[in-house]
Design brief:
By secondary structure, the protein is of the alpha+beta class. It has twelve helices and 26 strands. The strands form five sheets. Strands 1, 20, 21, 22, 23, 24 and 25 form a seven-stranded antiparallel sheet that branches.
Amino acid sequence: MNILPVNIDLMIRAYPHHLFPHSIMSKNYSAGNLLADVDIMRIKDNTFITIERNAKFKITDGNYMLYSDLYAPQADNIIYRLCDKNDEIIVKINHQHYSRNWASIHLFIDNLSDLECKKNLKTCDVRFGKCCRDSLFVYDGKNKFFPYYKVSEFPYWLRIKVKDNEVLAYISDDGINWVEKLHCYIPFADKTQRVIGVCFDLQADSYYDWLFSNYIQLFSNLEHQLLIDFLVSPYKNYLPYSHNPILDFLPIRKEIIESKYDSIFEYIKSCIDIKKYIDLYLDEFFMPDREAYGEYHIRVQNLVYGYDNDSIYLLGLDSGKPIQSKISIKDFFNAYETCKEMFNFVYEIDFFKCKFSFKLDYFKRSLENYMSGEIENPQLYNMDSIMPLSDVTFGMNIYSKLLTDKGIEIIKNDNRVAYVIKEHKTCMYERLKFLKARGFLNECNYEILIGYATELKDKSSTMLNLIIKNEIKNDSLIAEKLKNHLIAIKAIEEKYYPLLLELLQ
């Protein structure tokens, strides 16, 4: 049995090509506010001093829990005290948020005056700790080393020991048996001003840097049944290919799978066991928890995220909402074999690529393009391979298409349009909180703007609810109500976005 993590509480989820990457990234990569949980085993009368940068400590009897705000930038928090001539620290690591390969919790020795004037601990005298990936971080005052060391599970222990100018550092899986990983001599200039401590060099969440840098521009072609979607990924063979700095995305031909594995189940096991998710098409006629079960054939994308001896665990969409399923291997085999698509798609988390920073200028250009209905560098998206660009509408120009009788009819009959609009406004609402947290908006300007963002989010939610209610009980005034909501949303955006651009700093 092996079940990988997925998240269904998402901002962006109306289509599988958004739902699946976000369900993987946000679950694997989001800090959930807790960055670290450590116990300092040898503590001297609460003599430790804390420095908090972008995260907050909760301290209880030698236990330090480090929390960050959801949209906070990288944490670089420090705990330290004066170091005796012969001294040591032992730290038990109960939790360490895996944000990027080289993020770490490490022990250090430094000069007090140097520590106080530094913005971070990148150049302290000695550093020893555990990176998020399977390696240690060792700095002996001259050279950096990244020796391989795999921790099977939490907790693990770090220890640094000082004897005059001699420094030794160890790691342990049980707090009893220690493996020496550093032994060096440091000519400390002034031992009376020497400090020893713990540094938390942990990134809160680059996922949000990437999310809020994108999902701004929309595009649509109602004449060709291209309803409305976010312009994020390049297109190939009529499919958007996941393109982001966190996931690897690889199409695998079915015949390759069949030539290398005895069954699709063996292939799934091999992928899941090395933390790879599989995106494939299944026929819902054979899936007991789906509306089409036993009634009609419909091929839809599903994400395989786990298995046990008898079942496969799937993530899919049902009427615009994520649905998690557990189906028998027999039902899965029938649902899979009925579909004739040539490719499966494999997603793999690659933390080495996770360093991504939000750029304000890029966001401004993207928002300006959304307002004007223009697109920069259309060749990057390869959209003209599936339709002429002249047939595609972008940004706020989409409202003129949606407000036609045909547009209203499409919105009424396919709730994915309303879901995308709601997701767009919700993302803009959360993006405003992100901009404030990162210092691009001061408190006063945030308070001026949040009313617009809230109204957009509420209007789009109400419009979606109107459509869902209309599916249950026909509303003779639904067309007029939808038009009124679209007009109101457009009017708010015309006021809100120019003001946002003006107030950003």
